[in-house]
Recover the amino acids of this structure.
């Protein structure tokens, strides 16, 4: 499953990735590596975000050590200034007309995030950015955070597309044995991979008891619980999760009888063995309760910190034994199908893509 | 002397190495790399220790992040459970009959340590474990500790088989110029290398004055001192050390006239440039005096910490100049002969071993 | 500009480099890597400094972990002792007559520094050491410090030969926009590269206001300011800097009307991506004012700390994109010419040097 096109990278280049939360870029520029590219992000005078290569063409200094002046990004070493598209606009004592342009990357600021397209700029299509209803509708509240994680971003995709790990990694918060026992169903369409699990008439684990209280519902009765994980390209996982009072319809229960939310996971490759993880939770209950948003963020941050250690140690093991074949079980179907979708998209980006075969020979029946 | 069989490792694979002190494995599993192999150690329900490869066949997570349940080791990621021999016994929602076995390593728990055989399991022979009288007899007391040291394990063998370094590295505790002045004698048999030194009618250095007081003997008179270093395969060094009141027979003096002990050194390779060092002292005087055990352990720990810095800096120098030839002097005979014994054993492990030549061309006369 | 002779190093080997400040070597030896060579510096009984390879021929321990006894350097591992020229003079229980010599490096102690010649000892010529008047004359005061910087030493040469960076990197101390605006003039002779800038009738920036007060001059009037950077082989940059009260002759003003000094920069390669930076300021005003020396040292240390971060991040960028071509502008002429001088000297050190071509094809007109 880890086959990478020769000389290629294990990620799709022509896609929108989350580069940062919108509020990470203020008066100062931000340097961050996305899909192996060193980038600097800054806001021009109109407030629009730009992304350029974080490398001054003069002497190679990182532009992210500079500052913004009148909407231009000024290198902090010798004062070369560039506009929002990477055209050098000014440098003391120099005629800059013939200076080479700095590479710029297509950017969209939307949904509280800055999205960047690391590949071919001509191919960048705003229409390819997902629509995220929870990020725009006043019916939803959102809180989230950021972790830098030293593992291949695909290990995080695997992690989120197989929630049986909750029973073990998150035993004290969201895990419960019923997750292991409930059958999981995976289906793939050309647009997404969906893996889902429904658990009826169970005791809510501590995190969900907290959520029930937040939603103004009793926390001590039986509930129907659901988990619907949706992978979409290039590497986003949205997970519909929730609990409803027992027998009220479960996932389809009326809002007043459930605590329902979406676990939001934007997984952006940094290098081949590290990624940026933007996590959060969008909810449709008690949306005006800012204290609840903080409580959920804190709980979720603690839970995802448990994943972090496991994933970094897993990466160390896989780096130590790179040729080892892993098992692919029914519970792995979500991750396996997601990786296949990534692989096909990477292959389709290669020159002469039609002629390429995707190696699925070692795929097991899922 | 650092010749390694092509593609091979600089250590013997088919031998018993100390993996850990017995009390390092309690309710939780322990992960440790031994001879380049990542291993996990745990106690099954009967309390017996098992060693498996620290790599879950499902997704490659380290099993050492898991837990023990009913004598089985359960992976902390998705719940794969293995028995003490590496056979997968259970996993939620899975039929595990066809799962591949996890590699297991032969283990013996004895003498307060867990011993592991990293090589060919079929060749593992409990009879090849050394007999250690001091570890079983009620006539002896023992205390010790553990250091992780970032150098080739053979530099530690060299260190212990040439105690002239005590004069310099341990000047304030066990060193004294008489060590340098006394002649050293080295002899090799097929089973061991022994290098010995006897110093008569000298002033005891501070560590031995402390030991004399502990043994109920005067600390201000002259003593006869001895050091008898014994190297045995794969990489153990036992050093008989002691002082007797002057003229009472030295090494052969009656117990009441001497403080006599064995410096215990189990040197277990971790990687090519690091090792696990299990050190301690077994003594035949004041064996009921637990406070003395602590005092000796503390003193010995401080002394071996001095070696640690020197050895790690020596390794850095040798890594920087890998082709440099070193001197081999009479005082180095113990280390040189020990390395020859290691080399022969490594060569004998290779396929078609009989046909192999050991390169001893550069050996000097010792 | 970064062309290095095949198999060669990016520095001149046959030259005097600053190894350390004279007071860095006291009773204990000092270990330091100079031009890729691990060296140990120590004072023999007469107080003269010696430099040897920091590698004991016995077992490879660093001699810098040892101690000095009766003018000999004694290895801290097994007591091998060497004289100031690297001849082994003694070792307990050994006849050392046939021991190989330890490599020794030519040394000069002068001007408050220890200078070492890392190349061919036979070629070492004391006459090639620069004369530094400020270091000997009672008309001057000096204070300075040391930084270890993780970048190619030539990036520091570039930095010091183009002071337009002061406007950006040191905006709050010595930078001012007039530096960018004043034309810079660069000329190269066979002995040095000189780049100079004169700024008349400007407001003194904070550092120079402090210096004016120190010199007993008013700090609130206009001044004439100058910067004359002189690069000499192998990698020293002396910068004449100062301010004079406006209209009193600028650089040529009488001493009573100016604060005049030399920024001293000895840049010694450690590895290909790190160097030792010995910085300081020699001044001809208020030379008896020790408190002023401290104030200047503190200010200069803070300023050069700003360079350190920029240079290390620049190095990281260049290491990430090693094939990227950089711009060479008029302001870079000083650095470009200095690197050409270094390159020619490196080429001249190669066997069959006459036949070598220096690649200047990519040089722009400066």
């Amino acid at each position: 499953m880890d086959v990478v096109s020769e000389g290629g990278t294990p990620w799709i280049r022509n896609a929108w990735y989350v580069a940062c939360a919108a509020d990470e870029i203020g008066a100062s520029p931000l340097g961050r590596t996305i899909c192996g590219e060193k980038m600097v992000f800054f806001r021009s005078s109109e407030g629009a975000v730009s992304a350029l290569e974080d490398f001054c063409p003069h002497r190679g200094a990182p532009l992210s050590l500079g500052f913004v002046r009148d909407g231009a990004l000024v290198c902090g070493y010798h004062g070369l200034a560039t506009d929002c598209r990477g055209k050098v606009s000014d440098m003391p004592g120099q005629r800059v007309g013939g200076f080479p342009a700095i590479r710029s990357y297509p950017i969209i600021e939307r949904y509280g995030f800055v999205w960047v397209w690391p590949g071919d700029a001509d191919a960048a299509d705003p229409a390819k950015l997902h629509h995220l209803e929870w990020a725009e509708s006043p019916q939803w509240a959102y809180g989230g955070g950021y972790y830098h994680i030293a593992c291949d971003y695909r290990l995080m995709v695997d992690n989120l597309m197989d929630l049986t790990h909750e029973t073990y990694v998150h035993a004290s918060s969201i895990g419960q044995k019923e997750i292991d026992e409930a059958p999981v169903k995976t289906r793939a369409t050309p647009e997404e991979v969906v893996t889902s699990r429904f658990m009826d008439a169970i005791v809510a684990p501590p995190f969900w008891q907290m959520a029930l209280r937040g939603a103004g519902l009793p926390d001590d009765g039986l509930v129907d619980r659901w988990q619907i994980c949706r992978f979409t390209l290039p590497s986003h996982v949205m997970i519909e999760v929730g609990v409803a009072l027992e027998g009220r319809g479960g996932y389809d229960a009326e809002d007043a009888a459930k605590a329902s939310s979406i676990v939001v996971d934007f997984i952006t490759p940094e290098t081949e063995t590290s990624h940026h993880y933007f996590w959060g939770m969008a909810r449709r209950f008690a949306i005006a309760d800012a204290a609840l948003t903080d409580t959920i963020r804190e709980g979720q941050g603690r839970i995802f910190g448990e994943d972090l250690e496991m994933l970094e140690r897993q990466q160390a093991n896989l780096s130590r034994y790179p040729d080892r074949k892993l098992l692919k079980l029914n519970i792995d179907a979500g991750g396996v199908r997601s990786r296949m979708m990534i692989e096909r998209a990477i292959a389709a980006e290669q020159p002469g893509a039609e002629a390429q075969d995707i190696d699925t020979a070692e795929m097991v029946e899922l």
User: Anything to note?
Assistant: The first strand of chain A starts at residue 17 and ends at 21.
